[in-house]
Amino acid sequence: MDSWIHAKAQPGAGRSARHLLVGALLSPLAAGLLATLVILWGTALFSLLTGPEGGWGLIVLYVVTVLALPIVTAWFVHEIGVLQRSRFRHLLGVDIAEPSWTLRSTARQAAYHMWALAVALPAVVLFVAPPAARWLARRDSAVAEDMLGPTRIEVLNRRLESLRSSRAEVLLAADEERRRIERDLHDGAQQRLMSLALNLGMAREAITEPSPAREAIVAAHEEAMLALTELRHFVRGLHPAVLEDRGLDAAISGIAARSPIPVEVSVDIGRRCPGTIEAIAYFIVSEALTNVTRHASATQASVDVRRHGGRLAVTVRDDGRGGATTRPGGGLAGLAQRAAAVDGELSLDSPAGGPTIVEAVLPCG
Q1: How many angstroms separate the CA atoms of 202 and 186, rounded?
Q2: Which residues are paired to 312 by β-bridges?
Q3: In the sheet that 356-363 helps form, which strands lie side by side, from edge to edge?
Q4: How far apart, in whole angstroms, are the C-alpha atoms of residue 254 and residue 109?
Q5: Which residues have CB under 8 Å from 124's CB, separation 6+?
Q6: For residue 23, how many C-alpha atoms fall within 13 Å in the half-sphere facing its CB?
Q7: What angle do CA 151, 153, 156 make, to 5 degrees?
Q8: Residue 296 gets which letter from DSSP?
Q9: d(CA 82, CA 70)
Q10: What is the CA radius of gyration of the chain?
Q11: One cellular component GO annotation, for this chain's record (predicted)?
Q12: Residue range 105-157, pLDDT digits in tens
């Protein structure tokens, strides 16, 4: 059966008999109460259709009864379903998940209650016949799993929701880990490397006479400065601190300022999106502008980030030569997968001769 049925019982004769006996007591009581509710509703409806006798108070009572009793009956059907699932869980060890509150699930549970009533009479007779009791208990379990539990569509929807939740948790954990690595590098290796570069710079200024020692210090200083620059780029690529501190507008403006070609930036998102979504939007813009600089032969580019309800739209456009593709394993392909992981979309439109347009739509609830 479905994974939402957590255990599949193989009951012994004693447990089967107790299960059937409790069902034989519960089912007629539930059926009697359901029948009473249905009779009351039918009587009230018949009185309204044939012309109620009495004053307005009685008419109002009939109307309230006709309108309210279906809701009460549906609630009662679900509550009896709770008792029946509890019976299976405690007496047979069969854990049946609770279905959603829909008309279909209510009808299915009501149908099971009718089945349980049909089982009640032979259950009393078979109480003294252990083999038959086991067979009837297994049959009752199979019907209950099918009719008291969620439908296959509900099971699939729950699995899908579970996968979405797990996927979001993985992305959040990955972003948190990137933030931790960024902080560790910034506060540790980057600070020590900066101190080394400063000391080498001071030594370079102190030794003015040409000598092999000065040449070695100059070379070491230049290497330290280059390593510091590369480390800063690496840290910024992990998770830019400005994104967390000042938001998407400032972070994207920083990317544009470092670009060798003019980039027009327009950001209008109102309140901030979740950190994971902002990070994906940031890296989409960063990767797109990097591709513009390296491959597009463009003279200018633009970045537009706007919020439309619960969606964040990111558009990067350039006037380059076009012909770009999202090759497997490339930066944009990886970002497209990351956008899809949060139920977003990334598309590339790059005809030969340009322009190239990278568009992404991300959830920003």
Answers
A1: 23
A2: 307, 362
A3: 263-268, 301-308, 311-318, 356-363, 345-349
A4: 60
A5: 20, 21, 24
A6: 38
A7: 110
A8: I
A9: 18
A10: 35
A11: membrane
A12: 888 888 887 887 777 666 555 555 556 666 667 777 777 777 777 777 877 87
Amino acid at 263: V
The strand pair at 263-268 and 301-308 is best described as parallel
Question: CB neighbours of 123 closer than 8 A, spacing ≥ 6?
Answer: 20, 21, 23, 24, 133, 136
Closest CA to 269 of 257, 254, 284, 252: 252
Token look-up 């309800």 returns 309
- Tens-digit pLDDT profile for residues 178-188: 667 666 666 67
Collapse the DSSP code of 53 into the 3-class scheme (helix H, G, I; strand E, B; otherwise coil) and give the result. Answer: coil
H-helix segments, the chain: 13-50, 56-91, 103-126, 130-147, 152-187, 189-206, 212-238, 241-246, 248-258, 275-291, 331-341
CA–CA gap between residue 148 and residue 141 (Å, rounded): 10
Listed residue (128, 141, 140, 113) closest to 32, CA to CA: 113
CATH of 242-363, one of 3.40.140.100, 3.30.1330.30, 3.40.30.10, 3.30.565.10: 3.30.565.10
